[in-house]
Amino acid sequence: MDSTPFPSSSSAFDLVSRALGRYIPRGGAAAGPADARGHRTTRHPVPDNPAVGQQEQILGAVNLNQDLMITRCNLDAPVFAGLGAAAGKPFVDLLPPWDVPTVTRRLRQVVETGEAHVARIQRLRRSDGSELVVSLSILPAAAPEEGLTVSVIAMARRLHLYAAETAIGTSLDIGETAQSLAESLLAWGDVAAVDLDFAVWTGEGVTGQGQRRIRLRRAALVPDRAWPEGYVTPGDDLPSDASRLLAQAVLRNDAPQTIVIPDREAVERVLDSPRVVRALVPVDRSAGVACIPLVLDGMPPVVLGVAEVWRRSDCPFRDSELVDLQELVARTAHHVDLARQHQREHTQVLALQRRLLPRTGGDTIEIASVYRPATPDSAGVGGDWVNSFPLPDGRTALVVGDVVGHGLGAAATMGQLSMEARALLSAGLAPDEVLEHLDETVTLLDDAESGLAAGYSALGSTCCIALYDPVSHHVVLSSAGHLPPVLVTPDGHADPLALRPHPGLGAEFALREPFDVHTFVVPPGSLLALYTDGLVEDPALPIDEGIDRLADAVSAVHPWDALQQAARHVVSVLAPARQRDDVTLLLARMIGYRKGDTATLRLPARYDTPARARAQVFALLGQWRTRDDTRDKTVLLVSELVTNAVRFAAGPITVRLIRTGSGLLCEVGDTGNGRPCLRRGDLLDDGGRGLGVVHRLTTRWGVRWTDTGKVVWAEVAR
Asked: What are the phi and psi torsion angles at 547 (to 5°)?
C-alpha cells in the first residue's frame, strides 16, 4: 500500500487518479490508467472468473473547465472502453441526449456554489450507441484551480446487484416494481424488458402452470425511446405465439431455466415468424438475448413472468454475467409477487368502492360524484363512501359516510354499513332509525372477537342520510357526527345546513345521543352537496373556513352546467394536490315532479270512502289520458288500499297519485300502526285477500312509516 501523503493542494482529479493505482491489482485490466505522473502501465486480460472480476477497475475521472469542456481524463480501463472522452470535447457528448439538460444544470450548479453533487446514477453513451451505467459525482476543483472533476464509478456486478436490490421493491405498484427491475437489468445490455403473466399483472393467484393457456403482458421496457411499429411496449399483450415460445423456453422439462439466444440468426430461427420477430426484437443490432424466468419458490415452482436482456451479438453473455442476472432476478421475484398480492387487494378495494358510488339519478334528481383516494395504493383506500339510490316509494336516498381508517379493514366495514343502510332505507325506515341500527352495528363489529382482535376499530365513524321527496320538495335528514351538507338554493345562495353536533357511530353508551331529524324545503333547481372531511380539511385553516370555501365553490355551479364536470371542478379547486385523506363529493340537483304529474286526495275514514276514492281516481286518470287497462287496475288498487285503511286504521286517509316515467305510483296514508302482511289464506277466511289483489295488480309495493302513521305504496306499470 502506498503510504506517501498527498499534498493538500492536490486537485480532485489528482486524488482520484492516484486512487486508481491503488484499486488496480497486479496483472489486472488490459489498458491501464495513468498513474500519478501520467505514465501508462501495461495490463493483461482478466479471465472470465468471478473471483478475478471482483478486482476489475471501476473508478475513473474527468477534469472539466468552467465551460464544461474536458481538459484531462482518466477513463482508460476496459470497462470505460468506447466512451470517446478526449481533451477539448464537451462533457455532454458522453451523455444520452435526454439527460443533457439535467446533468448540465447539475454541473453548472457545482461551478456556481462550490458544493459537490455526489453519487448520481447516470448512463454514459459509448461511440457505438450502447450505454454504461455509472455512479457519477461532481466535485469542485481545489483552489487556485478552476473547473470541475467528475468521478465515475462503473456499476460493477456486485455493486450493481446491491444498488438494484435496494431500488426494487420500494413501491408496491406492480408496474413500478417491474420498471425498477428492467432499469436494473439494463446495466447488462442495450434493452431490457419484463413480461409478466397476465394473471400476475391483474393480481390474480398463480398457483401452477399445468396446461393452461399462457398469456404474457409487457410490464416494463427500457430505455424510453421511440420504438418501431409492431414492437411490444408496456401495457401491450405479447402475441400468443411469442407468449407460448417464451413460456416453453423457460420451462424446459417443467423446470424454470435461463436461456440465451446468441445472435439474430438464432433468434429468427427460434421465433420462426416475422410478426413475432417484429414484436420482440428491439433493433437489428440488439440481436442476442438472455431470458431469465421470474420464479416464485414452491413445489412446484411458479413462473411469474420473463425478464429479457438484449445486447449486440458481438458482445456475448459471459457465464459470470448470467449468474449475476439470475441472482438479481431471483432476489427480486418475491417483490413482484408482493406487488401482485397488493394489486389484488387494491383491485378488490377499488371494486368495492366503485360498486357503492352512485350511477345515475333519475327523472326527479340529477346525481354526480367524485371519489379520490388518499394514495394510489390500497393503503389509502377504504373509509369514505357516497351512495344514492331510488327508494321504491319514489323518493331518493342520499348517503355519505366516513369510516375510520384506511385499507381493506375500513373498506370491508364501509361496504357492510353502506349495504345495511340501503337495505333499511328500502324497507321504509326513517333516517334516524337507520342510524340507530348502524350505531349498533359499529359497536358489535368492535367487540373483542371480531373487532380489536383483528387490529381494526370503526368506532367514531360518521354517516349522513338525506331523503328527497320529489312531490313535496322536502329533504329529511339525519346525521351521526358528519359534517353538514351544503344547500344551494336556485338564487345561488349557499349555506351549510344547521345540524346539531353528534359524537358519531359507536360512541360510549353514556355519551350516546338521539339522532335528530331535520326537514328542509328544497325548491326545484336546488343543489345539495354531501362530502367527507378530506375535501375541506386544511391544517392551516379552521374546518369552518374549509366548509365556507366549499359553499363558495358550489354556489358558482350554474343550473345549465353539466353536473359531473362541475363536481370535478369543485374538487380540483378545493383539493388540487393529493390529500392526506380520501376526497369524496356528491352533488344532487333537485328537479322534482311537475305540478300536473301529482294529485293528492284527503278523505275521511268512513264506510263510503272507498267509493269516493274510486270515483275521484277514475276522473283524474281520465284527465291524464291513462290507458283503460291501467286505469282499471289503478282504480281497483286504490279501492283495496283505502278499504284496508278504513277497516284497520283511524283518522283521515290521504291518497296520492304520481305519474312517473314508467308507470303510476299510488300511495295511501293512514294513522294506523299495523304492518300489512301478505299471507296465504284458507278458503273459509273472511279477510286477507285484499293484499293478494294488490300483489297481483302491481309491479311492486311496500310500506313506509311516518310520524303520524304509515303509508302503503304500490306501483302500476303503464
From this structure: -65, -40
